[in-house]
Amino acid sequence: MDKAAKNTTSEILFLYELSLSIGRSMDVAQSCQDFLGILMSRKEIAFAAVWVANDKLPGGRNVSEATLVCAVPQSRVLHRSLLLEHPSFRLTKEQCPVAVKAGDPEFSEVTAEQVGDTGVIALFSLGGFGLLKLYSQRPEAFSGRELRQLRNVVEKFAISLEGCLAHQCLYAEVLERRQAQEALKQSEGLLEAIVENIPDMIFLKDADELRFLRLNKAGEELLGYSRAELFGKDDYDLFPKEEAEFFISKDREILVIGKPQDIPHGEIQTRYHGKHIVHTKKIPIMDRQGKPKYLLGIAEDITEFKKAEVEHERLQRELQQAQKMGALGQLTGGIAHDFNNLLGIISGYTGLALDNCVDKGEEKLSGYLRHVQNAAGRATTLVSQMLAFSRNEKVEDQPLHFQTMLEENTRLLRSTLPTSINITTNIEVGLPAVLMNATQLSQLIMNLSINARDAMNGQGTLAISLGRVKKQNTECTACHGSIKGAWVALSVTDTGSGIDPKAINNIFDPFFTTKDVGKGSGLGLAVIYGIMHSREGHIQVETKVGKGTRFQLLFPPYIDEETAQTPEASQSAANHLPQGAGEHILVVDDEPALGEYLSDLLKFHGYQVTVMTDSREALGLFKVNPDKIDLVVTDQTMPGMTGVELIIQFRKIRLRLPVILCTGFSTAVNKEVAAEMKFHYLEKPVNSTNLVHAVKAMLNDRKCGTAVADN
């Protein structure tokens, strides 16, 4: 075989082998490497590169450029992208192979790689979508025959490469879709998780029939229905008729308007939890034509917030009430001093006049004076009760017989309650004493009587009874403790409306009331609860709706009968007052009439008296001859110098000077202060019996080692 035949055979085998490399892989880079590997080894090619227009590549961005998809070797690459206007693409625009030899003007223009100053570059169009560049270092150019042979194979390679590119684009698109679907799935899952975990109820209705399509977990918990139970139902299937009509009417209105609406406050009947208050936002969702397709609802359960709001308002009202009571206390304290002075004058002179009338046997006039004295006593009690609002001190109990006090309180009730209420009393005689405070006893009776008046709407019968009772394992209505043994029972019974059995367990709670707004503070029974149980007492309530109520207060009897106060003992003490022996008493009070009364009283009982209406002048008088004064009786609230300040100045001059301080109201003076400063303490209006006894006692004990406070 001659040389030409061998060359032809070699060329045919080369082209055959090159053809076999085409289409072996669907991967673009691998397909290019297979093709270029054989081509470069057979044709002494030093560098080969394949460029593809970006619009044929997956995700190609800049369509005015081409991207290098394969280069052998990579080390010669200078650029990985070329403009489609590059000379390499322009020369192959007609899709004919082009060979450019070193030294030609175009050689440097088409060179985009590291090549020498010699050699030849062959350019082949890849079906108009790409470019094949071959560089050989041989000195002679590619012959036309070589270019034609290679063109046929390159065209097949271009077809195969285009298929690989299409496959790669399709694969990238499928992958992108899968990724998008996965992202969408994750997004939907996230959105579903958000909707499920939002603490507010979220629901979705169809716009045509307003039937429920979706409900989140918070909605299930609030309404008491599962989403399966709710699906396909409307408001009439779930809520009372009136509620359903309101919801559907509002939903229709929102769908017609086509705008979201805020419903800040609405009640909703739940399946298991009663009524709840919700703040709802309803949003119409439109289709592409702008017609309503769904109604989205977001409802926040504000029941607890509203309860807290109501509680806050209630506390505000209670604060205002407390402020009013504080103002009343200040007002009471402000007038108590002057008012008690006036009462002291009235009561004192009435007592003196009564003593003179008794001595002269004027019974009729004595009767008149006793009425005046009783009225002054009731006024004194009234002031004491008013002062309870402005005091913050523990009241000491003493053994008391209730009979007389109950009679006095009943008389006060008759003047307080409307005449349309008939008041009856039943008081057992010979009852044991009870350890109690007189003012708080009056408070118990008054609170229960006012409640009875309100329950009877101002008309009916109020029965008050006092007697012994025995209990055997009964229960206290207030504390639910067991009751047994003997008690002194104070019962208040009315013929009013009665108490709802459901409310019985709450009536002793502070601020609980069944009365209309503004007609009760809800503190009356709470105060009674506190007073009774602080003394180991109990309360029993019997009631029947429409018939009436009986409150029975049970007091433990006081054992030591000898110390109990009785009216007879008090009267006996008043009739046998001790007499003085001419001791000199200094009376200091800025009220002249009261000072004059005290002077007359003390003189009547055998004392010498000097009256001063100015505290500073009294101090000046004392400084002149301190030993001349045996005892001082002083007011507390005076201009210039208070009673306590005056005592301090007196004691600087004469340490053991006996002093009795009288006050109607003062936050600076109490029993602790009296004990510490060692003076005797009396409350105004001063009881003449208490004052005379106190004077005698202190004069008998010139050491002034004790301090006693009388009420």
Blueprint (SSEs and pairs):
Blueprint: H1 3-20, H2 28-42, E1 45-53, E2 65-72, E3 81-83, H3 87-91, E4 98-101, H4 105-110, E5 120-125, E6 130-136, H5 144-197, E7 201-206, E8 212-215, H6 217-223, H7 227-230, H8 241-257, E9 261-269, E10 275-286, E11 292-301, H9 303-360, H10 363-387, E12 398-400, H11 402-416, E13 421-427, E14 434-436, H12 438-455, E15 460-475, E16 482-494, H13 524-533, E17 538-544, E18 548-555, H14 567-575, E19 584-588, H15 592-604, E20 608-612, H16 615-624, E21 631-635, H17 643-653, E22 659-663, H18 671-677, E23 680-683, H19 688-700, E24 709-710
Parallel strand pairs: 13-15, 19-20, 19-21, 21-22, 22-23, 23-24
Antiparallel strand pairs: 1-2, 1-6, 2-3, 4-5, 5-6, 7-8, 7-11, 9-10, 10-11, 12-14, 15-16, 16-18, 17-18
Q: Can you walk me through this structure?
A:
The protein is an alpha+beta fold and 711 residues long. Among the domains are: 169 residues, GAF domain (Beta-Lactamase), CATH 3.30.450; 104 residues, Beta-Lactamase, CATH 3.30.450.20; 136 residues, Rossmann fold (3-Layer(aba) Sandwich). 44% of the residues lie in helices and 23% in strands. It has a 6-stranded antiparallel beta sheet. α1 runs antiparallel to α2. The longest helix has 58 residues. The C terminus is likely disordered.
